[in-house]
Each structure stands twice: as C-alpha cells, then as structure tokens.
Design goal:
Length: 641
C-alpha cells in the first residue's frame, strides 16, 4: 500500500512539473512571437522609407527632365529659372539613401550619385550653351541628358522594385514564423490542457485516498482490533448520543467467567478465538441500533437505545445472555461460555453517561458475586465501589484485629451419615455490615496480596479447633481452602508443618482444598508443593471439580487424595438423566485414580440415595448441616443421629 502511494506521489509530481514546463514554454512562445512581429514591423517600416526615397529620386529626375524638355522646346529665357532650380533636386535623397539604406541601397545610391552628378553637369552645360546661343552643343547636351535621365530613372525604378520585393519577402517570412508559432502554441496548449485534466484527476484521487485514510484511522481509533466491534471511546460516544436524544437508554456490561483459565490452559490463540466468538454472538443477538463494544480483556458492553423500562432492559439482557451462554467450538476445543451481566438504565436511576457506566459496573459486580447471570443496578448495592477501594486496607486491618471468624460445615459419610470431617469456611464479622460471606472479600484478598495471611488465620483457627475437639473426644478432621498464592510459595509446606506441630495434628487430620485454576499457572511447582504437603501427612483435595477446563489431565499428574464434585453437577442429579450419569462418570474416574469422592451442595434426601448407588464416599450440603460456628458444630456432632 505504501509503495502504491509513493508511486502515485511520483506521478503527481511529474505531472505538475510537466504542466509547469508546458506553461513556461507557452509564455516563451508568446514573447518570441511578439518580438518577432515587432522586429518585422520595424524592418518593413525601414524598407518602406527606403522605397519612398527611391520614389522621390525617380520623381525628381522625371521633373528635372520635363523642365529640360520644356526649356529646350521653348528655347527662351523663360524656362531657364525652373530648370536651374530643379538641377540636383534628387541629390539629397541619394545622400540619405547612401547614409541610411541597406548595403545594396547604399551601393546603388553611390553609383547613381556619380551618374546623377554627370547628368547635373550636362544640364548646367546645356543652360550655358543656350545662353551662349551654341545650338549644336545644346542639342548634343539635350541628347546626353535624355539618355542619362532615362538610365537614372530606370535604375531608380529597379531599386524601388527590389525594395518592394524585399519587403514582401520580409512579410512572408514573418507570416511563416507566426504560423509556426501558432501551431506550436496550439499543440502545447492541447498538451497543457491534457496535463491540467490529468493533474486534476491525480488531485481528486489524492483527496479521495486522504479521505479514505482519515476514515480508516478513525475506524481504527474507534474499534477493537481483535474483534472489530466498538472500543471504549466509541461506546462512550454512542452512549452520549443515545442519552442526548433524551430517550430511555440501557447499558449492559458483561464479564466472562473463567476466561483466565481458558487463556492459561488452552493458550492465547484459543483465548482470542473465544473473545472473537463472544463478540460475534453479541453482535448477532443485538439489534441494528445497538452498539456492541469490547472494553478490554474479557469485558464487553452493549448500548441499547430506546429502552423504556427496567423490565424491557432485563428481558433484553437475559435474551442476549442466553444467546451467549452455550458451548463454543474453538478450533476443536469445546469451551463452556458463561458470563455475568450488569444492567443499568437512563434516565432513572442513572442520570448521566458516567452514572450509567458506573451503575452497570456495580450491577455486574453484584451478578458476579451472587452468580446471578444478569443483575439490574440497585442503589442498595452501590457504595461498594468506594468500599472496594478501601476494602484492601480494611481487610488487612480486619485480619490483624481478629475480625475474621471460621465457621465449619461437616462432610458426612454417605453410607451412615456420620461426620467424616469438617470444612473450615471463613467469615468476616464486619463492624458496620455484619457477618460477610467469603464471596464478599476473598476477591479483595486475592487482589491485595492478603490470601496468605487470611489462610494463616483460618489454618491456625482450624488446627486449634481440631485440638479442642480431640480433647473433647471428637474426631473431626479439618479441611482448609488454600488460596492460589499458597501454591506459589515454596515455604508453605514448612509453615503448615510448624502449625501442625504446634497443635499436635496427626497425619490425615488436615486436608488442604485447592482448585483447578490454582494448579494451571505453574503445574510443576504446584505438584512439588502438593507432594511436600502429602509427605508431612496433609491430605490434598481438589475442590469445585468440573468448573474448570483442565480436569482430566491434572487428575493423573497431581498428587491428590480427594475430589469434590462441584454443586452445579449435584443440582442436576435429580433433574436430568444425564446429570446422574455425569456424576457417576466423574466418580468412576476419581476412583480409578485412587481418589476419595465428596459431593458438594447436597440439599435433598433423594440425592443421597443416588450418591449411595453411584458409590460416592462422602457428601456435604445444607441437607445435613449449614456452615456454623464451632460450638454449634460440636453440639451437632454430639447429637444422636
Ligand atoms: P467452597 O469451598 O466450594 O465452599 C462450599 C460453599 O458451598 C460454602 O459457601 C457453603 O456455604 C456452600 N454450601 C454448602 N452446602 C451447600 C448447599 O447445600 N447448597 C448451596 N447452595 N451451597 C452450599 P461459602 O461459605 O459462602 O464459601 C464460598 C467459597 O468461598 C468457598 O467455596 C471457597 O471457595 C471460598 N472460601 C471459603 N472459605 C475460604 C477460606 O478460608 N479461604 C479461601 N481461600 N477460600 C475460602
Ligand atoms: Ca472448599
Ligand atoms: Ca467447592
């Protein structure tokens, strides 16, 4: 494209240079033609003057001769005066011609001057002869004079003719020259005209390509290069436009679930394909007037002009989310697509573009936290944004000042429903907001590097509680959820060992629950740390199994003891035939790898029977017991079954 542009520029420059040369040539020809004509006019005027002088010579000699004839005929005193005064009358003209005529005129005049001198002498002699009465001399002189006058007049007329010829030659030459110049002017004018047309075409093409480039630059500045949908700048522009019309405007903000895992596990190319697929699905399900935008990473937005009510907004939001959330085949990898969506509406409660963006963000955060799919902006949830900013500092303070509590939820044996252990689940007794669940602050801990101190608090509390229960005669092994940072810390196993020693925890009495996503970033290092943990008697459990993308491959490679089937699968056990088959297949797989199977989220009696049939060892869920403070668990455990 650049080469083409350079070529066009070279052509344009050449055309303009040629046009300039053509115009200069035209001007030069005009000057030449004018000068040539002026020269010719001067030449012709000069020749005319010379011809006139020769004419005078001819005329004066003729008059002299006629005076002579009259004088001779009268042969009296009367004709003498006029004859004498006419003698030498052409002398002045001949002198002029000698001095001012061209080379041949000058030469001819000189020759004629001599003959004319002789002629004048003869005339004077004739006058003298008449006065003396010498008739014979008179006659002789008259004859001589007649001959000379005739010769002189002939020569004068020859010169007149020659000069006339020269003048017409000069005229002809000038005419010819002018005709040539005219032809050249015509040809050059046509060429110049063509060049002007060509330059105009080149300029128009130039202007078009400049306009096209400007359009392309604007498009690039306003669109996302990976997906071709609008970018943040264009989104804001469209939002402003929609809001300016005064009509109801909806904004949907979407964030994909598990995108980081897809990227980490299947690579960035597949990640990019997923982003493109999401953009395509959103564009397909949006109306022509809607604007789909990518805000960066896995975050998208849809601007919906002409949305009147929150009901309409939520209906559209759900429809778009439904169209988006179905498995995608990305070059052979089938990936589950799911997302959380926040919705906000202008003019109420959001009364500006900035508000719309912020409110949709708050709603999206609510949807993500509550796993709601779509959430409408609710002023009740607002303020979280400012809280989010200070939450890191606040949580750090909470950890240091003992605001974290640990609740426990039992895991029961499916066969006889006796507790096989408990899972420690952290809570934050917030001074202003009351008891908060982990979803409200675990992400804050992850973002602020607080997972290690938080895990320490839970680990310490759980091991201390283990010792308390043991002292009370209860055997309740504890499971603690480890945050991602723990598997990146080579010192973690030694730290756990020190705590176990401090609280006399024996082998198998502590389980560490990890998730698939924690393992993905650096599987080798994770495997080393997990192997070290097992070596000191810690059991390792893989949590939320089935929600990630790495499931099968890691089962074999990782040193594990237990697998917890995520409650999403549990929920489907009773609803669909395939739900039961999936849980059975996962359990079979786990057993084949030598793992103990725990099923999470058991809420119904019927499920327990099915799990028993499938052969799952343990179950956890509200059916048996909700997460509770330690003393309530003690009471629950001691109560007769
Ligand atoms: P998780 O490890 O899957 O924990 C089980 C969650 O399922 C708990 O939510 C529990 O209350 C909930 N649950 C138990 N039985 C049922 C049931 O029958 N139905 C339903 N719908 N839910 C049930 P909780 O306590 O809100 O914890 C949420 C998540 O927070 C945990 O999921 C875990 O990933 C994380 N978490 C909790 N405590 C800690 C911790 O100390 N450290 C770290 N890193 N993460 C923690
Ligand atoms: Ca867990
Ligand atoms: Ca779980």
């Amino acid at each position: 494209m650049r080469a083409g542009w350079m070529r066009r520029r070279a052509v344009a420059r050449t055309a303009i240079a040629a046009l300039a040369a053509g115009l200069t040539l035209l001007a030069a020809l005009a000057v030449f033609s004018a000068r040539n004509t002026a020269q010719a006019i001067t030449g012709i005027a000069g020749a005319e003057q010379v011809t006139q002088q020769w004419g005078q010579v001819y005329l004066r000699i003729g008059i002299e001769y006629e005076q002579l004839v009259d004088f001779v005929r009268a042969d009296s005193e009367v004709g003498r005066g006029p004859l004498i005064s006419s003698i030498g009358s052409a002398e002045e003209n001949l002198r002029w011609l000698n001095a001012n005529g061209g080379p041949s005129d000058s030469f001819q005049a000189q020759t004629l001057q001599n003959t004319y001198g002789g002629y004048s002498y003869t005339l004077r002699d004739l006058v003298d002869a008449q006065a003396e009465g010498d008739r014979a001399r008179m006659e002789d002189d008259a004859k001589k004079a007649a001959l000379s006058a005739s010769a002189l007049r002939k020569q004068a007329s020859v010169n007149i003719a020659r000069n006339n010829l020269e003048t017409s030659g000069l005229l002809l030459e000038t005419q010819l020259d002018n005709r040539r110049v005219l032809l050249a002017v015509e040809i050059i004018s046509v060429i110049d005209l063509l060049l002007v047309v060509f330059c105009a075409l080149v300029l128009v093409a130039y202007q078009r390509s400049t306009e096209r480039q400007a359009r392309e630059s604007r498009y690039q500045a306003m669109h996302d290069s990976l997906t071709g949908v609008a970018n943040r700048s264009l989104l804001v522009e469209r939002l402003d436009q929609a809001v300016a019309t005064g009509g109801g405007t909806g904004l949907l903000l979407l964030d994909l679930d598990h995108f980081k895992e897809v990227n980490d596990t299947l690579g960035h190319l597949v990640g990019d394909r997923l982003i493109q697929e999401v953009a395509a699905r959103l564009t397909e399900s949006a109306r022509a007037d809607d604007t789909v935008a990518r805000l960066g990473g896995d975050e998208f937005a849809v601007v919906l002009p002409d949305i009147g009510t929150t009901d309409d907004l939520m209906r559209v939001g759900r429809r778009i989310l439904d169209a988006l959330c179905r498995p995608a085949d990305l070059d052979g990898f089938v990936v589950d697509v799911s997302a959380s969506m926040g919705a906000a509406l202008y003019p109420a409660p959001s009364d500006s573009t900035t508000d719309l963006m912020r409110h949709a963000d708050v709603a999206m955060y609510t949807a993500k936290r509550g796993r709601l799919g779509v959430a409408l902006y609710d002023p009740k949830h607002d303020g979280n944004t400012t809280e989010k900013l200070t939450a890191g500092a606040e949580l750090r303070n909470a950890i240091e000042h003992g605001e974290l509590e640990v609740h426990y939820q039992p895991k029961v044996r499916v066969s006889d429903r006796t507790p096989s252990g408990v899972e420690a689940l952290v809570r934050w007794r917030h001074p202003a907001r009351g008891l908060l669940g982990p979803d409200a602050f675990i992400p804050v801990a992850e973002q602020n590097g607080l997972i290690r101190p938080l895990t320490d608090v839970v680990l310490t509390a759980a091991l201390e509680q283990l010792r308390t229960w043991r002292t009370a005669g209860l055997t309740l092994p504890v499971a603690v959820n480890a945050g991602a940072d723990c598997l990146h810390d080579a010192g973690f196993p030694a730290h756990v060992r020190a705590l176990m020693d401090r609280y006399d925890a024996g082998p198998g009495e502590l389980t560490i629950e990890i998730t698939e996503s924690m393992v993905i970033t650096d599987p080798e290092r994770a495997a080393t740390i997990l192997a070290e943990l097992r070596a000191i008697g810690v059991r390792v459990s893989i949590d939320d199994f089935g929600t990630g993308y790495s499931s099968m491959s890691y089962l074999q490679q990782m040193p594990l003891d237990e697998l917890k089937i995520d409650r999403r699968f549990t929920a489907r056990i009773e609803q669909e035939g395939s739900g039961r088959a999936i849980v059975a297949a996962i359990a079979d797989l786990a057993h084949a790898c030598g793992l103990h199977v725990v099923v999470e989220g058991v809420e119904h009696e019927e499920t327990v029977a099915i799990l028993d049939e499938i052969g799952c060892e343990a179950a956890q869920g509200y059916l048996f017991c909700r997460p509770m403070p330690a003393d309530e668990i003690t009471a629950w455990a001691l109560a007769p079954v």
